[in-house]
């Protein structure tokens, strides 16, 4: 369970930005005249698809690793992940010369396995179930003494993810609304903390696939409702909202909007066509929400976080 008392602040996120600056890229903020016209709003896209390991996850992993004590570093770090966090943690650990033990299901995409190996991580395979992932991780931690770095529900990880929004506000201030995708909620939590601290009147909107809408349902019910049986092509947003991040959602987020897979595909294609960049389906969820609910955003200055660009080019959804 995360330490709910160690909630990140603007100050701790600013310290994280200084801490990780040598391990991450300062990613660009792009605009598109045609997307502005289509949406009726002034859109700014923060391009974490250009980040190290191709996703914002590099930020949280780097911050968590760099905050470890020297004694903890000697024993390395461990996690279970089949996605971007696996590669991000392996890379962050390798940058400071410590071991990274990555528990991955046998069903993990080959591109993810190759990335972990390329960054020097040691992969321990397990059956493709949450129970198997957690039990295997526990065995690894007991055997090695490594520190478990979860992918999203951890204050140090949230701090790192929040540096993305901090950069965005430094690059272009005065946003009326920030729209951020939500899965486990680490990126959303960090984004909301920074944005509300810098401009209290800003609206922070979470965007989520309708087929994995636990954040939407939890926000409405004001109690955390874990996701069961998610079904969406936005594979980066399949996981349930974390406990710490649920508290940040209730405290700092103004609304949660959901979109269908068809709307995600449409928005993803528009990003490819108009911005000329490669993004994964999860990236397109915020733009899909803006296009689905244009009346909520019309005439506003909107910051959008494009979370990553790790996509199998042979399986682009608008080609199927």
UniProtKB/TrEMBL annotation:
Domain Tryptophan synthase beta chain-like PALP: 21-308
Ranges in a coiled coil: none
Protein name per UniProt: Pyridoxal-5'-phosphate-dependent protein beta subunit
Entry keyword annotation includes Ion transport: no
Pfam families linked: PALP (PF00291)
Top-level taxonomic group: Bacteria
Keywords, alphabetical: Lyase, Magnesium, Pyridoxal phosphate
Keyword rRNA-binding attached: no
């Amino acid at each position: 369970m995360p330490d709910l008392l160690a909630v990140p602040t603007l100050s701790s996120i600013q310290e994280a930005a200084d801490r990780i600056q040598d391990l991450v890229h300062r990613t660009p903020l792009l605009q598109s005249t045609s997307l502005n016209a289509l949406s009726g709003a002034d859109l700014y896209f923060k391009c974490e698809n250009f980040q190290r390991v191709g996703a914002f996850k590099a930020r949280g992993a780097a911050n968590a690793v760099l905050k470890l004590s020297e004694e903890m570093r000697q024993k390395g770090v461990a996690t279970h992940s089949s996605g971007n966090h696996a590669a991000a943690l392996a890379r962050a650990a390798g940058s400071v010369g410590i071991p990274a033990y990555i528990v991955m299901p046998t069903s993990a995409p080959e591109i993810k396995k190759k990335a972990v190996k390329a960054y020097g991580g040691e992969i321990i395979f397990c059956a493709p179930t949450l129970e198997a992932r957690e039990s295997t991780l526990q065995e690894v931690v007991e055997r090695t003494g490594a520190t478990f770095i979860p992918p999203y529900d951890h204050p140090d990880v949230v701090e790192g993810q929040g540096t993305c929004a901090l950069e965005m506000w430094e690059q272009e201030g005065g946003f009326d609304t920030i729209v951020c995708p939500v899965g486990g909620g680490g990126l959303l939590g960090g984004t909301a903390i920074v944005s509300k601290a810098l401009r209290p009147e800003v609206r922070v909107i979470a965007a989520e696939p309708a087929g994995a809408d636990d954040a939407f349902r939890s926000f409405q019910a004001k109690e955390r409702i874990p996701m069961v049986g998610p079904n969406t092509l936005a594979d980066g947003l399949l996981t349930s909202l974390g406990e710490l991040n649920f508290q940040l959602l209730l405290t700092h987020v103004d609304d949660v909007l959901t979109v269908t897979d068809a709307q995600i595909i449409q928005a993803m294609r528009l990003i490819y066509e108009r911005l000329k960049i490669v993004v994964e389906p999860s990236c397109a969820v915020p733009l899909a929400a803006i296009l689905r609910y244009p009346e909520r955003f019309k005439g506003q200055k909107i910051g959008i976080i494009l979370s990553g660009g790790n996509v199998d080019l042979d399986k682009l959804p608008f080609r199927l």
